[in-house]
Design a protein that fits this description.
The protein has about 550 residues and is α+β, with helices and mostly antiparallel strands. Helix content is about 15%, strand content about 30%. The protein has helices spanning about 15-20, 35-50, 60, 65-80, 85-95, 105-115, 120-130, and strands at about 5, 10, 25-30, 30, 150-155, 165-170, 180, 200, 200-205, 215, 225-230, 235-240, 250-260, 290-295, 300-305, 315-320, 325-330, 335-345, 350-355, 365-370, 375-380, 390-395, 400-405, 415-420, 425-430, 440-445, 450-455, 460-465, 495-500, 505-510, 520-525, 550-555. Strands 5-31-30-29 form a 4-stranded antiparallel beta sheet, with no helix packed on it. A 4-stranded antiparallel beta sheet has the order 14-15-16-17, with no helix packed on it. The relative contact order is 0.13.
């Protein structure tokens, strides 16, 4: 074990392992390369892993499996320093034939952070054969085919004080802060169903609540999957309401809310006298049960009005330049219940529809918008492989990725589809999860790898994206996560939305209890350094974070 003090920071095996994970795409010699948001997010994450004195921080200790993995990584590092034979095994297990072999312990730890499922069980055996300089009790680690480090954040000291109740989706701003749609009102668990959420939590990358309390106002009413940030940094939230049949029309959200980048509510407020009656927000376009909400590069706001009644069909609505009074709407002639929206490099929108079409399994609509012609349908993509599509995302190479929810009990699914935007050709890839994984949210990282929230399988899966992996030579569609996905050692429940930040962390909305009658969950999860970093906010296709800044000191 090596330990020394540099500018008030103790550098030891624990700090080395923590640095390797949080900065695994950023370490460049003796410095870090990145932009301010990425280094801010990475540094806050590091501080949640290790204290300045080189001990494990309380946030990590509150996540027992993360703390134990960190101890084991420190033992790997310590033994590899003193034992050449041990180091050789470590370097071999973490190297790839597709690139130059690892030569140092730091490179080995970085490789584990980047690919925590690679040779995971062999690395556990190796770590547990090392002297336990850092005492590690592996009882809390149930997923031994993963070296994922993660945190569960409640926006409060513990779950009993959580500001969340059914978080649905996440948007990350240019500073790295997280804005989170929150479906139910915390503390209303005794109602059936609970009251609609009327707050907008905003977290720092550390998991701390900005300003000490969630944002309120603006007509928030049961925000679900819809949340997006426009080019001015304003945050748009879709008010979904409820899914419960015993709260029929009154349970439907009918608006979108708008907040400034500083957190000021800009849309009309709602009445506090009728807790189950939606009011407030922007209602232009006859919205009902809003799901996906996305800005394009010009600041036009695309809205998926998901629900329908005999008088109000489901539709997509666009607020031109973010002005609700200047709206246009479009009812697709074949497809119904639009769920999510992704914007391509041309500013066109790709919309997933849950139902309708020839097979009733939904499909994808491709749309353009301008002030002269309004919303225009360019093409409709239907396929037997498009099985109730939910989450949708556009890759940097132009391809479109879709999660097939399956819509049980009639349909089952554990697949994602890749769509060629020119030909409309659909490729289908299996998720390495259970037969009924029921994926919801889908997003991409800077390498176009695909991250999928498995709602029914209680996990997230990662697939190699649209090119051959330069690290391991994986073909597109190859599973990069362990069998069954990353289940956070059984701690995550039913995840919905997920988002990648500029430090390579993957943030996941822990939305719903496995037992449906218990309703929402109370946290978001942070998978540390799992992804290739991206620029935030996400407006248009995913954009890799470019390393154009001057390297900065590790300390």
């Amino acid at each position: 074990m090596q330990s020394n003090d540099t500018q008030g920071l103790t550098i030891n095996d624990l700090s080395t392992a923590a640095s390797a994970y949080t900065f695994n795409r950023f370490i460049n010699g003796e410095g870090l390369t990145g932009n301010k948001p990425s280094l801010r997010s990475g540094w806050m994450t590091y501080q949640n892993l290790v204290n300045p004195n080189g001990t494990i921080d309380q946030v990590a200790l509150n996540n027992a499996a993360t703390a134990e993995r960190l101890n084991l990584l420190a033992n790997l590092n310590a033994e590899a320093i003193s034992n050449p034979a041990f180091r050789k095994i470590l370097l071999n297990l973490t190297s790839s034939i597709e690139r130059e072999s690892n030569q140092t312990n730091l490179e080995a730890l970085i490789s584990i952070g980047q690919s925590p499922a690679n040779n995971a069980r062999q690395l556990f055996e190796l770590a547990e054969s090392a002297p336990a300089i850092y005492p590690a009790d592996s009882w809390s680690i149930s997923q031994r085919d993963s070296w994922l480090l993660y945190f569960e954040h409640f926006g409060a000291a513990d779950e009993s004080e959580s500001i969340f109740f059914g978080p649905g989706n996440i948007a990350i701003d240019s500073h790295g802060d997280l804005w989170i749609a929150n479906n139910f009102k915390p503390g209303s668990e005794q109602f059936d169903p609970p009251l609609p959420g009327t707050t907008l939590p905003r977290l720092k990358p550390s998991g701390e609540l900005v300003g000490g309390e969630p944002l309120q106002g603006g007509g928030l009413y049961g925000a679900g999957f819809g949340i997006g940030i426009d080019p001015e940094g304003q945050v748009w939230i879709g008010n979904f309401g409820f899914g419960a049949s015993n709260i029929p029309l009154r349970g439907n959200g009918n608006s979108v809310s708008l907040f400034s980048k500083e957190g000021e509510a800009l849309s009309p407020n709602r009445s506090r006298r009728a807790p189950r009656k939606p009011s407030g927000g922007y209602t232009e376009g006859e919205l009902l049960g809003v799901q996906g909400v996305t800005s394009d590069q010009e600041g036009n706001i695309w809205i998926a009005s998901f629900r329908d009644t005999a008088a109000t069909p489901s539709k997509i609505v666009v607020y031109e330049n973010g002005q609700p009074k200047k709206f246009d709407s479009f009812q697709h002639p074949e497809l119904t219940s639009p769920f999510d929206i992704a914007i391509d490099a041309s500013g066109d929108a790709w919309v997933s529809y849950r139902s309708g079409g020839r097979s009733g399994q939904g499909g994808i609509g491709h749309f353009s918008f301008d002030s002269k012609d309004g919303i225009r349908l360019i093409q409709t993509i239907e396929s037997r492989d498009l099985n109730v599509p939910f989450g949708i995302a556009t890759a940097s190479d132009g391809s479109i990725w879709v999660a097939n929810n399956g819509g049980p009990p009639r349909y089952k699914s554990r697949t994602v589809c890749k769509i060629d935007p020119i030909t409309g050709e659909v490729e289908t890839f299996s998720i390495n999860a259970s037969k009924e994984s029921g994926p919801w949210g889908l997003n991409l990282d800077g390498a176009n790898n695909v991250y999928v929230a498995n709602f029914e399988d209680l996990s997230i899966s990662v697939l190699n994206g649209s090119g051959v992996d330069s690290l391991y030579g994986h073909e597109p569609g190859t599973a990069l996560s362990p069998e069954g996905g990353y289940d956070f050692d059984g701690n995550i429940m039913r995840p919905t939305g997920l988002e990648v930040d500029s430090a390579g962390n993957v943030w996941v909305a822990n939305n719903y209890n496995e037992k449906a009658d218990l309703y929402g969950q109370h946290s978001v999860f942070q998978a540390i350094g799992l992804a290739d970093p991206v620029k935030t906010p996400l407006i248009g296709p995913v954009e890799p974070l470019l390393w154009t800044t001057t390297p900065q000191s590790l300390v």
